[in-house]
Amino acid sequence: MTLYSLSMATCPTRCLLAPGAVSVRNSLAAGTPVFVSYNAGINLYVGNHHDLEQTLGRRGGYEWGELFRDPYTSGAKKPAAMNRFFVGLAIDEWLEHPGAMFVTLGKKILLVFSGAEPKRNFPIYPLRESSWVLSALLWEFDIGGFTLFAFPAGLFIPLAALGFWSVRRGDIDTRVSRERASLVGWVAILHVIGMLVFFPTARYRLPALILLLPFAAALIVAVFERLGRGTSPGGSMQARFGAGTFLVCLLFVLANPIASNVFRHPVKDRAEHHFFNARWAEERIRLHREVFREAYMLAQVDEAMRIEPEYPEPVQLLAVYYVARDIDRSLVYFSRLNELVPNDQTVLEQIRAAIAIRDQQQR
């Protein structure tokens, strides 16, 4: 048996090692059989909704918690039952809104090709202010909030697509057969197809971009080699070059001014960024007694609330923070939080606990 045959024969086993270990660990922790995790149902529903903005645009915290009210009220309280509940909702979306669901699928495909990094759970671009490396490697050129070019994906995706297409057509010389040279490209495409079942984000599509990196590099090398030789291409090569240039231009427009502007949340992202800064400072104060960070924390919370007054998480942070420092001020923030998220049982319990602390202090 050759090394290649042995590698192919053991491939399924090697591919199952990582998810198998995760499955065993999660099954032991949950006390019930778990294939990998029970978040497939909620992620399937998030990415398969007739109003994709309503689900995919939700932030962690109260917005995310609203999704779990329906399964709880329907009696689905265990992880497996909640998983089945959300899978059922996703199937119902396709049955009840087939036309809108194909629009949702089109939006997800655009997000895959987006030059701007599709966020999930936290905004990426505001982090540039804390790192000159990230500022150099991740940026956008926009006019009035409309993105015209996003680096690096806005440049990389068209080059990688043309590189893969050129390898498949034999326009780029490879040391192995076209089939073997393009194998990682097909793996990347399969990864994207699997991602589209759920939803695309920057971190989900990153493995596909890494797999496509050699094709972008091969295209750049091939172009410079031909320019260095200074030979004029023949008629067939001119036609291929023209088709390739058209494809790059088409994908460039698709990735940048079209796909990069599908979902834009500049106000929410800036507010969320300041809130995360404040939460980090609060954790340093609470866990490491770094009280000198209080001024920074308060400034970040104030900025988050100024940008987005209806954002409940900064208000909650201040309400909890002042419980042990200024109970009256804490209750003011709890009152505001109750206005933003009315009838939330956790908030109501926190308010009752804060009132009890105030009454005890007044005795």
Give an overview of the whole structure.
The chain is mainly alpha-helical and 363 residues long. It has 18 helices and 2 strands. It has a two-stranded antiparallel sheet.
List the helices and strands and how they pair.
Layout: H1 3-30, H2 40-47, H3 52-56, H4 62-65, H5 69-73, H6 79-96, H7 98-112, H8 132-137, E1 139-143, E2 146-151, H9 153-169, H10 178-181, H11 183-197, H12 202-229, H13 235-258, H14 266-288, H15 294-307, H16 312-321, H17 327-340, H18 345-362
Helix pairs in contact: 2-6, 6-7, 9-12, 9-13, 11-12, 14-15, 14-16, 15-16, 16-17, 17-18
Short description:
The chain has 363 residues and is mainly alpha-helical. The protein contains 18 helices and 2 strands.
Quickly give the structural class.
mainly alpha
This entry's quaternary arrangement is single chain
Question: What is the β-strand count?
Answer: 2
Strand content: under 5%
Fraction in helix: over 70%
Instruction: Work out the helix count.
Output: 18
H/E series: HHHHHHHHEEHHHHHHHHHH
Low-confidence stretches: none
Overall pLDDT level: 87
Taking strands numbered 1, 2, ... along the chain, how are they ordered across the largest sheet? 1-2
Q: Describe the main β-sheet briefly.
A: 2 strands, antiparallel
**Which of globular, elongated, flat, extended, rod-shaped describes the shape?**
globular
Rg to the nearest angstrom?
A: 26 Å
Distance between the termini: 85 Å
Describe this protein with a few key phrases.
globular, mainly alpha, single chain, two-stranded antiparallel sheet, Serine Threonine Protein Phosphatase 5, Tetratricopeptide repeat, 363 residues
